[in-house]
Amino acid sequence: MTVFSELRMRPAAATRWGWDASTTSRLAMAGVVIFTLLVGANLATPLYPLLQVRLGVSSLGITVAFAAYVLALVATLMLAGHWSDHIGRRAALLLAVLTGLAGGLVFANADSLAGLCGGRALQGVAVALATGASSAALRELLPERPEWASRFTLLASAGGVAAGPAIGGILSLLPGSTTTPYLIHSIVLGALLVPLYLLRARPAIKPAAGPRPLKALAPRRPTVSSEARGAFWLAAAVGFLSFAVFGFCLSLAPSYFAKIIDTDSRPLIGLLAGLTLGASALSQLIAVRSRFAVPAGLAVLGGAVALIAASAAAGNPWLLVAASVAAGLGQGVAFRTVFNDVAGKVEASRHAQIISTVYVITYLGSAVPVVGLGFATAAYGLDAAVAGFVTACACAAGLLAAITWRHGLRR
Hints:
The protein has helices at about 5-10, 25-40, 50-55, 60-80, 85, 90-110, 115-140, 145-170, 180-200, 225-250, 255-260, 265-275, 275-285, 295-315, 315-345, 350-365, 370-380, 380-410. The protein is an all-alpha fold. Helix 2 (about 25-40) packs parallel to helix 6 and helix 13 packs across helix 15.
């Protein structure tokens, strides 16, 4: 099928033309697309201090721009999380790359807060379109290894979010510090369009029937089977907490970390901001099999988040690094376990829709608390606001750890 017949949801005559990629190549393509889009969505993290000065934007404005990305992502997941089931995984990923390309260019050329929000919103739409499609594609390509499909999904996602700030900090040293990173990223996205277009797509898992195929793309109220409901809500709760911590790392943390280590080096600040996400990504390579993996991971996350505030009070950069790594490892183990559980209990034909709904709640964690943190920063200052934020996150992690520990004992 051609891309255009997929988008029209009309079957096309079989053709020999196209790249009949191997399973390994398709796995790599699905992972690389979501990884690259998330890199682009997080290039801005070390650039925010520069943008504040260039555009005269306050800390609250930065959190608003960050929230624009997350809210657009969440809205698209709710409205279009099931699209790849009907138009096909390849078509959904192609749309995602095109939208991400537009978002990066808008953000790079923004001359106001509205422009920043517009670019971030387009990036959010792109990531949302790719999230359900890549996750479902990985599961379909590894039908006998659902756990590894989930690991690849989380590795690509957390890896992209972690790499974005570090890459953004390094590329910002080039001339045109706030635009060059996005121009280079746009070239990479443009290159991805070529293999995606040439790829011989597999049929959609739920092709639209009848004379009005577009009706299948209408928003749907997500429903979860009774046997998967408990796993769904636990994954959503752990995801919400996890991304509240991640949202802090990717928005106001650069300014906060810069005070702790007393530096204005953008590569170093970007590396620190992505450290928690990087540790989370690497944790997907660690095999942990225990009914107490979730409470243990949450306990480590809660303790490590509290130590981030302690590192600021002590002015200790090494404690900051250790706490950031520990937070990522704890989050990665806990979230992977609950994510695997819900993914394994959802039927394949509804995988993209249900996983997208998990991410709706998860990504709200990186918007709502972070906007509240922005208001608290404006009212009480950065140090006091962050102290209150990490205390709330540590308490929430402790509560979830206690609940899951009790559940583990029952099992």
